[in-house]
C-alpha cells in the first residue's frame, strides 16, 4: 500500500466548488444578510456632526426603528415582499424578513438631537456630535 499526498490545487478547487455550490443553494434564501450586510450604510462627517445614509428599498417607514446610544446607532425592522395570491414564483432574488444592524461611530453622539428622514427607500440619519465630545480651545494665560 502506498501513501500519497493530495494535490493542493485539487483540494483548493474542491473547496471553491463547495463554496460556490453553497452560495447557489436555497438554504440561505430567507436571511436578509445572506449576501452581505443589510442594509448597506454610508457614514459621512459634516462639520462636527455625522450623517448616515441607509439604503432600504421596499421597506415601509412604519416597519423601521432606530435606537441610539453613546457612540452607536441600531437600525432594525422588517422588509416585506408580497406576491399576488395564486401566483407561481419562478425566481426569487428580492429578500424579505427582519434585519438588524448596529453601527459604531467614532464620536459620542447626542441621542436627543438625532433626526431621521425617509424618502424613496433612502433613510438619512443626522447624528449630532455631543457637546461633551467636541474639541475645545483652551486659552493660554
TrEMBL record:
Residues 32-141 form the SHSP domain. Gene3D superfamilies: 2.60.40.790. It holds the Pfam family HSP20. It comes from the Bacteria. InterPro entries: A-crystallin/Hsp20_dom, HSP20-like_chaperone, Small_HSP. PANTHER family: HEAT-SHOCK PROTEIN 20 FAMILY MEMBER (PTHR11527). Belongs to the small heat shock protein (HSP20) family. This is Hsp20/alpha crystallin family protein. It comes from Bradyrhizobium zhanjiangense.
